[in-house]
Amino acid sequence: MGLVSTPERAGVLFGQARLLYCATVLAAIDYRWWVFIHLAGVFGFLLAHGASVSALFRLRKERDREKIRQLIQFSGSTIRLFYISLLVLVVGGVGAGLQGHWFKQKWIWEAIGVLVVVTLLMFVVARPYYRHVAEATELRPSGVPRVSDEDLALRLESPIPAIVTLLGFGGLAAILWLMIFKPM
Predict the structure, then answer these.
(1) What are the φ and ψ backbone dihedral angles of 6, each rounded to 5 degrees?
(2) Boundaries of every domain in the chain
(3) Residue 40 to residues 43, 70, 84, Cα–Cα distance (Å)
């Protein structure tokens, strides 16, 4: 029994080749959709952070306690978009990573590590700063501020906003570099 070339056999082989071609095209489309989902998450993530960073730097110039509270509240109002976007970018990134077989490479693990470290640092550095400033805007039942204007000004002039911004931009730049150049 050898390979017999018949029209039926040629049709089967052609059908299999066509199926393989379609699977390849579908895999490419799927990968692009995962990347699209990932980038949509990144866009929302950056949008939420843009509002927070704007509020963060506006705080430094503000001395009116009510306006400071409003800025902190505004910054906090973007947290839902932040977490939803983070979830979307992670899901899209994992989907693209699986589809593109990137998890076998070191760069993707380094990018995930940078994301985790920067997220934890932001939580450890930025959150206490906002809480510290918010506490300084509180009033006693008598209407007198709990913290002096001088102490409030010192808290607002802290280098923390610059540190947070550098951490964020540095982390984003590192992840972007890893994703584009895919070293190792």
Answers:
(1) -125, 160
(2) 33-181
(3) 5, 28, 11
146 by DSSP, 3-state: which? coil
> Which is it for the CA torsion 67, 118, 111, 113, positive or negative?
negative
pLDDT tens digits, 80-95: 999 999 999 999 999 8
| Nearest C-alpha neighbor of 33 from the set 95, 112, 105 | 95
Amino acid letter, 108: I
Q: 3-state SS of 77-138?
A: HCHHHHHHHHHHHHHHHHHHHHHCCHHHCHHHHHHHHHHHHHHHHHHHHHHHHHHHHHHHCC
State the Cα–Cα distance between residues 111 and 123, nearest whole angstrom.
18
Measured between alpha carbons, how far is 48 from 76 in angstroms, rounded to an integer? 10
pLDDT digits (tens, 9 = 90+) for 153-171: 999 999 999 999 999 999 9
Asked if 134 contacts 72 with a C-beta cutoff of 8 angstroms, the reply is yes
Contact assessment for residue 178 and residue 113, using Cβ atoms and an 8 Å cutoff: no
- The structure tokens 């704007």 sit at 54
